[in-house]
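Deviations from the work plan: none for this task. Representative record:
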Amino acid sequence: MSQYLIRRLLILIPSLLGISLVIFTVLALAPGDPFEELATNPNVPAEVRAALRAKFGLDDPVMVRYMRWLLAMLNGDWGFSFVSRVDVDTLILQRLPVTLVVIGSSQVLALLIALPVGVYSATRPYSIFDQIANLLTFVGFSLPTFFTGLLFILLFSIYLDWLPFVYRADIDATGWAWYWEHVKQSIMPVAVLGLFQGATWTRFVRSAVLDMIRLDHVTTARAKGLPEQAVIVKHVVRNALIPVVTLVALQMPVVFGGAIVTEQIFRVPGIGSLLISAILANDTPVIMSVTFVFACLVLLFNLIADVLYGWLDPRISYR
Amino acid sequence: MHFSPGREAWRRFRRHRLAVASAAILSLMILAVLVGPMIWQVPINEIDFTARLKGPSWSHPLGTDDLGQDLLARMLYGGRISLAVGLAAMVVAILVGTIIGAIAGISRGSVDAALMWLTDLFLALPQLPLLLLVIYLFRDSLKEIAGPEMGVFILIVIVIGGFRWMPVARLVRAQFFSLREKEFVEAARALGASTPRQVVRHILPNSLGPVIVAGTIDVAAAIIAESTLSFLGLGFPPDIPTWGRLLYDAKDYLDFAPHWALFAGAAIFLAVLTINFVGDGLRDALDPRRVM
């Protein structure tokens, strides 16, 4: 297992390099110049600007600049936010836990919906339950997260007045009240993301189980006289999860995209809303780093999927 | 009884009732945004402060926004842009995906491995952050070259399409791998057909079914992507009311003018839902192996 993990980690390195190359290329190709402001400022003489450019190495060839940027990123020197005057890595570390909690709980919610509904639909294909579930999953993944978010706010915050629609980080309560407030303000963002993902995954689970249920080993298990529940759980679902895990890993970029939107709607102080505010404020170091962090998170979840894959499918474990 | 392939596909598509109904609704929507502005000739930017944030009425069937502009006219105009972005981004994704998948599928070896590495890399990229990054960096310079409307349109279409070609490339490659060994291709090869001729005349036409299905779903995804960008305030400028932009403007007036957000959101939802159902029906029709 550890050997498998190490191999997987080694495969990550070229991917990370590739992603950093893509991000850097985008930045290098972009018009505009970090010293543009100095150029238009009449108090800064041209020689000073040239000296600054030379000092920060902006006139060097692209490859040299890429290597320098990469080394700085590796050393933990992620730059300095123009707007909030804080180091970018502290800023991101402040915001990251909220994002991870919201994404994590929404994924759990999605699984809690997708597994039972998908399996039940697939064991009774074309029944009334299956048809209704199918219709609802289509509605679920056709509703964009920003629209569901607004609908939830309209229903639960404006008409019913049950839930707050602005996420607050500073809640002045202690003990259970503090937890309760946090749960209350997390319900809508988590539900918006979780329902969307749940709808997509239900389809994956249903089709994977449907493929698996017709195979011979399932018939054998039934013929042995195993109870139906044991057949479904041990012989069908476990095997069906293998393709589902792959598809879920491929969905990770979509999940993070949805997280950015929900954080923006509900003003959740995570890295998604940090990215949007940085873009609106032209805060380039923050934009670059947050994009890179999102890429790393996607790769991390792919790694987790790979590990799960190795656990679910013993045939590929130690290869 | 014998059917031609086209009629066989149509017969299978027809059996999917939701897909047929969706195709009808979708055609109506497309017709509405194409012909609608000629019939409903209210200008999209006529400001009328006496009719601010009004709900639906006879003079404004979908109500008005915060400047008293007619929402029906704006929705019809914005729908053109939203649907056009969806279609154009789909074309970009299909073109890039087909070319890369075809090259990888026909050439095997190191070219195939390199292209598939590239595909996997793109699949692992966080798409929305990069979309935002690219648009943030390139928006102003493209505006200067192609004008505010066209510049943003081209940028959004290329960027959305450029992040959605990977599934198509994988599909096409997989199709090529199986079709390449089929007897009819071997026959063409034996008759002396060159590789490009084999690809264009024999392999590509036979691998198009799943690509059409993927392309349909891509239109829906591209519409969502464009609306997301506009909703975050980073898509089209305010004077081009795409459906996502309408929703972005409406979200601050949710408590006293909910009709504004509801109509725009419902339009996006309906377009995406019907396209997804049509895609599902097309899958039944064109990709028969997947049907149980």
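Chain A has a mean pLDDT of 81.
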